[in-house]
Amino acid sequence: MKKATFITALILAAALTGCGKTGSGSSSEKTTAASSSTTSEASSDTSSEASSDAAKAGTEAATNETTLPAETQAATQGSASADYTWFNRGVYKTTVDGNAGGYYVFTSASEGKVTSTTGGVPFTCEQTKGSINFHKGGVSESEIMTMSAGENGSIIGVSDGRTWVFTLLEGVSPDDFDASVYESAAESGQNPIMNYIGNYSNGRAMMNVAAKGKNGAEINISWGSSANATSFWHMTGDCTVNGDTITVSYSDCVRTDSVDGGGTIAYEGGTGKVVFGSTVKWQPDTESYSEDNLTFTYIQ
């Protein structure tokens, strides 16, 4: 009986030992699996956060790039563009620190003269988007102006703490511009064409000149090509004073051809100019008459 009890005890001990090993192995495997799962989840979270940050940074960069003003983007991509021009051919009146200045007369985008009623000096210049480098009076020294756009089409230049404001004089030609003549006409308040109003003839054609407003002219020309055929031209334009001459440039000419009393419009929007001096010369862009036939003299 004792022997049987002993054998039974040994069997129970073996069984208990086997169960313990089996339980220990399952616990270890569960711990490793849990650890691996936790590591994988952490790695996944880190990767997702990194991707999210990169996407956010990319979105912010794209937003910044698209919301920058065009002029700012241009400035960051080479503001010293050599083909940029602030000034083209024309006459620009200036103020300096709010006081009346002289005139910058550009005969082209790269040369001209600075002038006033007391005289002037020639200049050459190089224009870029950010600045203009002026070389005045033929000297080697240069004056660099930082440029920007002003109000109402004006142009602003800053150099050595001083500010220039440039305003284009519409209709004023840079050819033979005389500041004294220009200011005298402006101060008098009289339309400069008043000295030339009246009737003119070239022998066959008649021209009538009248003043229009403070600085304009209205011109009518009639030209009979035969006893029953006559052409009429009507144009208006502003006056430009150049020394002793006045030029009226026009772009609204209407030609009407009349035959036996009936009129037909030949064209509209014709361009050209009429130059008043010792004689009057009509210079139409849309006609092919000889220069002699386009020269008129005053008759009354």
From the helix content, strand content and strand pairing, which structural class follows? alpha+beta
Order of helices and strands: HHEEEEEEEEHEEEEEEEE
Number of strands: 16
Q: What ranges have pLDDT less than 50 throughout 5 or more consecutive residues?
A: 1-11, 14-44, 54-80
* Sheet with most strands: 8 strands, antiparallel, barrel
* Mean pLDDT across every amino acid position: 77
Distance between the termini: 165 Å
The amount of helix comes to 25-40%
Strand content: 35-45%
Radius of gyration: 44 Å
Could you give the topology of this structure?
Blueprint: H1 2-67, H2 70-76, E1 90-96, E2 99-108, E3 111-116, E4 119-127, E5 131-136, E6 143-149, E7 155-159, E8 162-168, H3 179-188, E9 198-201, E10 205-212, E11 216-226, E12 229-242, E13 245-259, E14 262-276, E15 280-284, E16 295-298
Antiparallel strand pairs: 1-2, 1-8, 2-3, 3-4, 4-5, 5-6, 6-7, 7-8, 9-10, 9-16, 10-11, 11-12, 12-13, 13-14, 14-15, 15-16
Structural notes for this entry:
The protein has 300 residues and is an alpha+beta fold. Helices cover 28% and strands 44% of the residues. It is built from 3 helices and 16 strands. It has helices spanning 2-67, 70-76, 179-188, and strands at residues 90-96, 99-108, 111-116, 119-127, 131-136, 143-149, 155-159, 162-168, 198-201, 205-212, 216-226, 229-242, 245-259, 262-276, 280-284, 295-298. The strands form 2 sheets. The protein has an 8-stranded antiparallel barrel with strand order 1-2-3-4-5-6-7-8. Strands 9-10-11-12-13-14-15-16 form an 8-stranded antiparallel β-barrel.
